[in-house]
Write a structure and sequence with these properties.
Elements: H1 2-8, H2 11-27, H3 30-39, H4 45-77, H5 81-99, H6 120-148, H7 152-175, H8 189-213, H9 219-229, H10 232-246, H11 250-258, H12 261-292, H13 298-323, H14 325-343, H15 353-389, H16 394-422, H17 434-460, H18 466-478
Helix pairs in contact: 2-7, 2-8, 3-12, 4-6, 4-10, 4-16, 5-6, 5-8, 6-16, 7-13, 7-15, 12-15, 12-16, 12-17, 13-14, 13-15, 14-15, 14-17, 15-16, 15-18, 16-17
Length: 481
């Protein structure tokens, strides 16, 4: 019945994913932010790495709490919309001040004095607030998709559409420097300012469209009709479940999640691939701009590669429905590993648009599958946890998933920056030492490939497939979830 409803209302997909376009647009600059703050605002790589690690410590507390209270709010009020809206508004404010630093005189018109605009404290404060706001928006919004689709096939579809939205946001960000009123195609503080104002304007519009047109759950009409036709005992069971949900404590939630072996098998692999992707993306802009000296090619090649990545997502979805998500994800990770390895063969004199496009295409198409399939697999693992514990807390699972992704990406970027700096790589130098080149290649090619290769072991052996998930869903429905 849920599948039929989704087919009859395809506009729900569009309305639901619209805010994901702009949230991805606002998150995309994190991949180049460390390069921008180092090159234009005078912060050292070690300072930036320290700020990133401090932000992760804050996330260690905030992510699980947001997940817990999102589930608690939903169990009491049957909606996640107020948290999504509040997080979205804070997202708009924090992203502006992070990407468009306000100078000492209270303006964002830097003139030629970029390095005097920001301090480490300014960067750290807005960076932490940015991550908090993204968590407040992201966790309930990504969990909401699981309320709109319960079976494995529709989970693959709705999260694939969400993946398309995420890639579109990244494309829009990298397309901004190519606008005709910019003299060069490099990513600079000026292009960041135009980008964040555009994204924030659309974010507010898309939030309103989404929250007004998408129901809290497509299961509501189904549950109501069953309740009317069912016996008093079945209704009483549903009421008992809701009361139990409202009274669950945080430690009980953590205990049930820790006991979910399928989730932690998948999560182990996901953390490893996130370490690889985070280190690669986190240092690629510095690698291309400061070492290869072709920063003007970075945005155009990314736009083209990400555009092809968008087109690939429906194909990944079709493969996952036919052959299973874990096998599909392993194939995608294979593409990512090949892109990492190719990065290590680049030399400054041989860099070209075609060669940059090749490695970005391999990683981009593979990453498209990751952002589409990984949330669907988390949602299935959350269903398994609900069956085992009789406690339906999907947002808590997505909080751990979200925290793991952000932490792995941030830690790998911070470690990569520290390693590159330790080897003597200097972002502001015209020529790099031989040791500096070793450091930047180690962190943009060899270490990412190592982490990604390890992830294959865990992803392949993730135990929940479509057949097992159907069994889980039937048992969940038998006691009112």
């Amino acid at each position: 019945m849920i599948a039929i409803n989704m087919k009859r209302k395809p506009s729900l997909y569009l309305a639901y994913i619209l805010p994901s376009i702009t949230s991805s647009w606002l998150i995309a600059p994190l991949g180049v932010l460390q390069g921008i703050y180092a090159k234009y605002f005078g912060l050292s790589l070690s300072t930036i790495a320290t700020v990133i690690l401090c932000a992760r410590l804050f996330d260690a507390v905030s992510d699980p709490l947001v997940g817990f209270y999102s589930d608690r709010f939903y169990s009491l009020h049957k909606t996640r919309k107020p948290i999504i809206f509040g997080g979205g508004l804070l997202f708009i404010v924090s992203s502006y001040f992070l990407y468009v630093p306000v100078s000492i005189d209270g303006t964002s018109d830097y003139g030629s004095g970029y390095s005097e605009v920001v301090s480490p404290f300014y960067f750290a404060s807005w960076f932490i607030l940015f991550y908090l706001s993204s968590t407040l928006f992201e966790i309930p919004h990504i969990t909401w998709a699981g309320d709109l689709a319960t079976d494995a096939k529709n989970k693959a579809k709705i999260y694939s559409y969400r993946g398309v939205a995420g890639y579109l946001g990244m494309i829009f960000f990298f397309a901004v420097p190519m606008l005709p009123f910019f003299e060069i195609t490099e990513i600079t503080p000026d292009t960041l300012k135009v980008s964040v104002i555009s994204a924030n304007t659309l974010m507010l519009i898309f939030l309103v469209i989404c929250l007004r047109n998408v129901p809290d759950s497509l299961q509501e009409s189904t549950v109501c009709s069953i309740a009317k036709k069912g016996s008093e005992s079945s209704v009483g069971l549903k009421m008992t479940v809701r009361v139990r949900q409202a009274g669950i404590k945080l430690q009980n939630i953590l205990h049930s999640i820790l006991a979910n072996k399928p989730f932690f098998i998948f999560l182990s692999g996901f953390i490893l691939i996130s370490l690889g992707i985070g280190m690669w993306y986190g240092l690629l802009f510095i690698y291309v701009d400061a070492y290869l000296g072709v920063g003007d090619l970075f945005a155009p090649t990314f736009v083209l590669a990400f555009s092809i990545g968008v087109v690939s997502i429906p194909g990944w979805c079709a493969i996952a429905i036919r052959y299973d998500k874990s096998i599909t994800l392993c194939a995608a990770i294979g593409l990512i590993i090949s892109g990492f390895i190719i990065t290590g063969f680049f030399e400054k004199e041989a860099a070209s648009g075609a060669s940059l496009l090749l490695l970005q295409l391999l990683v981009g198409v593979g990453f498209a599958c990751v952002i589409a399939m990984a949330p669907a697999m988390v949602s299935e693992a959350a269903d398994y946890g609900a069956w085992k514990s009789h406690e339906n807390r999907p947002a808590s699972y997505f909080a751990i998933y979200n925290f793991s992704h952000k932490t792995a990406s941030a830690v790998s970027t911070a470690v990569g920056l520290s390693i590159a700096g330790w080897y003597g790589f200097d972002v502001s130098a015209g020529e790099q030492t031989s040791q500096g080149v070793v450091g930047i290649k180690l962190t943009t090619a060899y270490l990412p490939a190592f982490f990604a290769s390890l992830s294959l072991i865990f992803i392949y052996f993730t135990p929940i497939n479509a057949r097992r998930h159907r069994i889980i869903r039937r048992r969940l429905e038998s006691f009112g979830f």
